[in-house]
Amino acid sequence: MFAELRRMNVRQVALQFLNILTIAASALMIWKGIAVVTNTESPIVVVLSGSMEPAFHRGDLLFLTLPKNDPVAINDICVFKLPGRDIPIVHRVLKVHESNSSKKEYILTKGDANPRDDRVLYDARQMWIHRENVVGKVRGFMPYVGMVTILMNDYPWMKFALLGVLGLFVLIHRE
């Protein structure tokens, strides 16, 4: 396996390295293109907890969109980010109302498996989230496909091992 790498000259190794960069750049462009088309910063997310069971299980991959003219409605399953928190939350919309004065949309959410609404998750003295907090609405899902992501976050060495094997594979194969 390493004999193949030793037989390569500097130009061939550089070409393989450029191939790796091209693949990475293409993946980033595809991700950003999907984000533009779906109008959401994160068009694909993984369910990290069991709070939405039985609708979604831990490890399900969700596909999101956020059309500009499509209001958030009761029973929509939305992904939202709270200020100061890195991880988005996937929960169902329980109540929606619009302020007459500010024309702002106020949203109350709840996980299907949770006994109470999400007010305990919001900031202190915050009773509702706003439309700006919504990352997207769930349009589809693939069951358990995101478990790979969860495993790589739980066991960081898996991530580095997988990246190392893939990088080595790309380097030693000339095609």
Notes on the structure:
Helices cover 34% and strands 22% of the residues. The protein has 175 residues and is of the alpha+beta class. A seven-stranded antiparallel beta sheet has the order 1-2-7-3-4-5-6. A hairpin with a 6-residue loop joins strand 4 (89-98) and strand 5 (105-110). Helix 2 crosses helix 4 (156-172) and helix 3 (147-154) crosses helix 4 (156-172). The model has no long low-confidence stretch (mean pLDDT 89).
Q: End-to-end span in angstroms?
A: 15 Å
Figure out the total of helices. Answer: 4
- The chain-level mean pLDDT equals 89
- Approximate shape: elongated
Radius of gyration: 21 Å
Beta-sheet strand percentage? Answer: 15-25%
What is the number of E strands? 7
- How does the helix and strand content classify structurally? alpha+beta
- How are helices and strands ordered from N to C? HHEEEEEEEHH
**Spatial strand order of the main sheet:** 1-2-7-3-4-5-6
Helix content: 25-40%
Largest sheet, if any? 7 strands, antiparallel
What labels would you give this structure?
single chain; 175 residues; alpha+beta; 7-stranded antiparallel sheet
